[in-house]
Write a structure and sequence with these properties.
Length: about 270
Amino acid sequence: MLACAVVAAATPVRAQTVQVRPSDGTVYRSLADTSRIPSLREALARDPADRARILDLANAQVAARQFREAIATYTAALERTPNDALLLRWRGHRYLAVREFTRARDDLERASDLAPELYGAWFHLGLARFFLADFDAAADAFRKARSLASSPSERAGCVDWLWGALMRAGRGEDADRVLQEPREAAAPADAYERRLALYRGSLSPDAVLSPSDTSSVRRATLAHGVGQWSLIRGDTVSARRWFERSRATDAWPSFGFIAAELELARLSAR
């Protein structure tokens, strides 16, 4: 036992690594390795084909915001099993965090072709397409994801992004119908449910974010929702302010933050 402890203590802790360099000069870095990552890496090295060990290591890397390292873990595994839909789904998901949207889309399209009932492949494919401003195609993916969602919270997320994709594609009537379709609502505190309440007009923009919303991911998600609603209404001043609130959090891997970042770049390019 003492020998094992000495080996663990001697295992070097990797420094924070650069994950994303946005065009404004900001640098987003990972956290340092947790104590679990070296042991999980060693376990995978003993059995590189064990999918459970692949996912355990990648999940630990993601928890430390080591998205590029997780992508490398999936890539090494996919060299052995290139048609593993689940690994493609997860690698595509992680490509979103590092802003490699085309690679994300390609992985997720392959995953959804290989496993058409894989909810996560379709939902994240919708996000990849949305981030690439391919809004009609994003709407198609979110519709499919909604049909496969297994919980009210998942369906709320699908409806939220589907509404946004349809509105951005100039399909306002279709978007309105989506909001009116019956479904089991998620909990009122669910971030996407609250955004949907704003879109339906049952919640004011100033009431979307509250002092109790302390999670950085939640704040980034809610602020992006208000920004998107403002942008669709043509109020670019308010939209910019809300997108900046989203980006002011430290939730840089979250979807609301990423979308706000992209919208701010588009507004600045006008």
